[in-house]
Amino acid sequence: MEALASAAPNVAVDFAAQFNEHQRANHLHREGLTQVLRLHEADAQAAKEYHRAEVKLTNDQHARGILQARVQHEEDIDIEKRGAIRENIRDEWMQLSDKAETVFIVNTLVLGTAFAMLVEGQLPESITLHQQVLMVAYFSALSAAICLLLVSVRFAMVLRFRVQRTIVEEMRIAIETTARQDAAFRQKECYRKCNRPKVTLPASDHPQQWRHVQSFTWQMANASNGVRAEAGGCGASGSHVGVNDEALPAFVRAPDAGSQYQDLRWLADAGYSRRHLLGCSRRSQTGSGGCCGHRNRPAPKAADAAATTAGRAGHGTSAGAGLRRSETLLSLNSKRSETSIRTDPSSRTTMSGGSDSEARQEDLTSQLPEDLEASPEDTDEVEEELDDFEREYQDLLRWRRRHDQQLQDRLNHLRENFCKPWDAMSQLLFFSGTSSLLLASCFLVFGRYGHY
C-alpha cells in the first residue's frame, strides 16, 4: 500500500505531463491548420488578382496588336494606292509626251515634203501666163501648209518641254508636299496613341489591385479595422491616425511597425480549452448531436468587441474568417467598407469569431468559380478606348486621303490646262497643214497634167 501510495503521485505527475503535452500538441496542430488554411486563402486571393491582371493585360495587348495590325494594313494599302496613282499619272503624262514626240517627228517629215514641193514642184510656164488663179491657189496652199506645219512643230516642242518640266518639277513638289503631310500625320495624337506602347502597371502597383496581393501579415492587419477603429479610428486612405502600433496586438500592427513575426503572444487564448475538450468528448460518448459551445457560442457583445476581435478575428477558431472580412473590405471602396464594418452585423459576427459552421460555409462558397471570373468591365473599357482610337484614326486617314485627292486634282488641273491645249493645237495645226499640203499637191497635179 505504501508503494502504491508513493507511486500514485508519480503517475499523476506523468499523466498531467502527458495530458499537457497532448493538449499542447493538439493546440499547435489546430493553430498550424488554421495558419495553413489562411495562408492558402491569401495565396488564392493573390493568385486570383494576379490572374485577373494577367488576363486583362493579355486582352489589352491582343486588342492593341489587332489595332496596330489594322493601322499598318491601312498604311500599306494607302502607300500602294498612292504609288499606283502616281504611276498612273506618270504613265499618262509619258503617253502625252510620246504623242507630242510622234507629232513632232511626223511634222518634221511632212514639213520636209512641203519644202521639197516648194523647190521641185514648179508649174509649167503656160500656167503662169494663162491660169494665174491656179498658180496663186497652189502657192497659197503650199505656203499655208508650211506655216501650219511650222506652228504645229512649235506647239509640239512646247508640249514636249512642258511635259518634261511638269513630270520633273511638279511631281517633285507633289512628293515633297506628300512627305510634309505624312510627317504631320504621324505627329497627330491619335496616330501616336495607336503606334506607341501602353504602360501597364503590375498588380502590386495598381491603385485598385495592390491591396489584394499584399503579404499575409498585411492582410491580417487590415482584417482588424474594427480593433483600430476602437483604438483610435482610421483614415479613408487606410492610414490610421492617432493609433500607437506598439499598443496594438501583434497581428494588428502594420508590417513595418515592429517584430510582429516573432511576437506570438496573441496565440495564448487560441484553440480549445480543456473544458471544451471534455464537453466535446462527453457529447461524443453520449451520442448527442450538435457541437460544443465553443463552436456554437453567440457573437460577443459590443462592449468587449475590441478584445474579442483582437483574440479571435485574426487567428481565432474560425479558419479564414479574417480574410473573408478583408476580402469584403477589398471588394468595396474605402468609404463603403468603413460603413459596412460598423453597420453590417453579419460582418461584425464573422469578424468577432462567430459561428464556425457559418464561417466554414462562407469559406466554401467563397471559392466558387463565379467569384474567380475576371471582371468584364476592364475589357469593356479597353474596347471603348480602342474604338475611340479607331474612329480618330479613320478620321485621320480620311484627312490624308482628302489631301491626296487635292494633290491629284492639282496634277490633273496642270495636265488639263497646262499641257492638253498645246497638244490639241499641235494636232489641229498638223491636221490643217497636212490638208493644205494635200490641196497644194492636187493643184500641182492639175496644173501639170489637167490643162491639156
From TrEMBL:
Domain of life, per lineage: Eukaryota
Low complexity composition bias: residue spans: 299-312
Residue ranges with Acidic residues bias: 370-386
Keyword Membrane included in the entry's annotation: yes
Bias (Polar residues) ranges: 342-355
Bilayer-spanning residue ranges: 103-123, 135-157, 428-449
UniProtKB keywords: Membrane, Transmembrane, Transmembrane helix
Record region (Disordered): 282-386
Record protein name field: Uncharacterized protein
Organism: Polarella glacialis (Dinoflagellate)
Source species taxonomy: Eukaryota, Sar, Alveolata, Dinophyceae, Suessiales
